[in-house]
Amino acid sequence: MRQEDRNKQVSLKFGKVIKVFPLVDLPQKHIVVKSSKELHGWWPGKRECTAERMLVNPYNGCTHNCSFCYAHAMWGYFNLYNSQKIVTVFEDFHLEVARQLDGLELACCGYLSPVTDPFQPLNIKYRLSEKLIKVFVDRNLPIEFITKNVVTDEALRLMEKQTHSFGQVSIITPDEDLRRRLVPGGASTEKLLDNLILLKQAGKFAVCRIDPIIPGITDDKKHLQKLVGMAVNAGADHIITSCMDIPQKIRPSLIAHLAGINSSIPRLYKELYTENLDGQWHANINFRRLLFQMMADICRQHGVGFALCMEYESAGGLVRGLNREFMTTRNCEGADVPLYIRQGSVFHPVNCDGACLLCSNPVCGIIELAGGGAWKLKDYRRWSKEINQAKEYTLF
Fold it and tell me: What pTM, to 2 d.p., does this model score?
């Protein structure tokens, strides 16, 4: 093999198996992978998310290149971007998702996508995000997205057709110069606010994620008051926030990057980031409580809902979620999105608010779902068999 051909290949080791993929240079470096990966719910372990979601990641790795992104510490295809700035594209993933959904009688809202941005620039070439939205909407299943980039007109047109679909827009600062230093590849603050406007014009519930708040960089009260005000004026119905946590793997590089913005960061973080939960460094609980109370008060003043994302404290050897202390809505995303049960060729909503983590009387008939869990496709298939045996459903 010629040297130039070797340079256009990427090798990845999975256990004892080495896989080789052709490298595609344009529009950004990426590989295209055929995958039969399955829909699944939240990850095992700590669970604060009140509602069930089917996680859909058409891309691994993201050219927004946020310095604080926890995916930099992840493995497999995610690590390929962190180490070599190569994105992984899951070819025709929408067809696999469609096949899986068509084998179910029970489903929940799709989540596009919880780890890497579904509307990053590479999506212009492959349009996997729009194709996945269509897969859900064609079956009358809700789907949500979360993005730091411009939402496409096609995506919004599709989501208009489905009652419970909604969008989340991540905006971490009203300062455009600061945003570019923190999120080099994302859309401008102005365009992100436009996303919220467009969501409201499409009749969709709009969430603004100020997520994460970065101590010493974006945690000033006036800074946050301004950002919440801008988001609400653009149409945000709900605010979600978190305080930046730091995976051990990226702690040195992240602190070095942020020190270029604020030279006191190394000293501040040495004093502040003292709590380690499962390999993630968290700001001490007293700092976080004050921060979250401030944000809750700001949101209350603006008349919008408020919740936290993946925030915990260690108490007496147990890990306890903080949402029960600060959340002002039933569901942490602000929107009540029920489970869906198949009726013929499409799905219809169950008469519930979708807050499975808080549920004590599951009208869907699936007792396991009440109280939350980390569910896989096999669980949905098992529940689908149970539902096939049931005769009555309570629907909207």
Answer: 0.95
